[in-house]
Amino acid sequence: MTSRLWVPPWPLDVRATVDGLHRGSGDPSMRYAPDGSIWRASYTPDGPGTLRLQSGPDGVRGTGWGPGGEWLVERFPEVLGALDNPEELVADDPVVAALVRRGRGYRIGRTGRVWEALVPAILEQKVVSTEAWRAWRYLLRRFGEPAPGPVAESMRVPPPPQVWARIPTWEWHRSGIEPVRMRTIRGATSMDAERHPDKLTVLRGVGPWTAAETRMRAVGDADAVPVGDFHIPKVVGQTLAGTPVDDAGMLELLEPFAGQRGRVVRLCVRYGTWPQRKGPRMSVRDYRSL
Q1: Which long-range contacts (CB under 8 A, 24 or more apart) does 184-188 make?
Q2: Domain spans, the chain
Q3: Architecture of the domain spanning 2-224
Q4: Sign of CA pseudo-dihedral 201, 207, 208, 209
Q5: Quick one: how far is CA 110 from the chain centroid?
Q6: Computed from CA positions of residues 15, 21, 27, 29, in that sequence, does the dihedral angle turn out positive or negative?
Q7: Do residues 218 and 110 make contact, with C-beta atoms less than 8 angstroms apart?
């Protein structure tokens, strides 16, 4: 076990900053404990590790377990936005300025683990989150090794690429994943994603939406815009213009914030106005019965 205390030099909302890394209720790789601590399991360059983040009056303490524990502890400030520069967002627009004030402690962090952001993003392609998170839970519990430390019975480490490449076809079916997303993840194992986070779209089945979702979490790309999302253009339009828009309308609204468009998107999603739901929602599909 290794531990260190970090004192952020600016206001920090730890929960808001890391919430985008959480893949739904029951995510085996991340959980919020009743005592307020946040736990994450990750497969680092040094091997599997577990990180606990505990906020207190003196700062944020990171504690790590396993071969990758030291790697996680050394870099946890980056997960909490230590390398982020929110001041680069010039909020002349009064709506955006209000979002910035509401999200004063929110920062864009970076995990430094591209593969662990890419796989769940692929699982979330063109489906409701519930369906993707169900598959994520199944595959991690089935193929992820127990997280080091005191959470070995309840948490799992996301597998490295070579493990994903060997998952049998029938296990993908049992997870609820159809062949298209299965082939996309398998194909992605051919690239060293950690070294080439700016080339993800050369992979078959990985488009701008998947790349943006991955880059925002893994490398802290403040300009990453998830074009092609079902909800986000509507939320951005409702928040910034008072009416839902499509992708083209969203990009037009975000143009004045070039370089920080992804930050504006995240502020809209977290602190903005969601349009009133009309019509039927997308259904949760289940390929396991086919």
Answers
A1: 184/122, 184/125, 185/119, 185/122, 185/123, 188/118, 188/119, 188/122, 188/161
A2: 2-224
A3: Orthogonal Bundle (1.10)
A4: negative
A5: 9
A6: negative
A7: yes
Return averaged pLDDT per consecutive 10 residues of the chain, 290 residues in all. Answer: 97 97 95 97 98 97 98 98 96 95 97 98 93 96 98 97 97 96 97 96 97 98 96 97 97 97 98 79 54
75 closest CA partner among 40, 23, 110: 110
* Structure tokens given for 280: 């039927």
Nearest to 54 by CA among 21, 20, 80, 86: 80
DSSP label of 40: E
CA-wise closest residue to 118 among 187, 28, 27? 187
CA distance 40 to 58: 22
Region for 205 from its dihedrals, namely left if φ exceeds 0, alpha if ψ lies in -120 to 50, beta otherwise:
left
Angle, CA of 168, 172 and 173, to the nearest 5°: 115
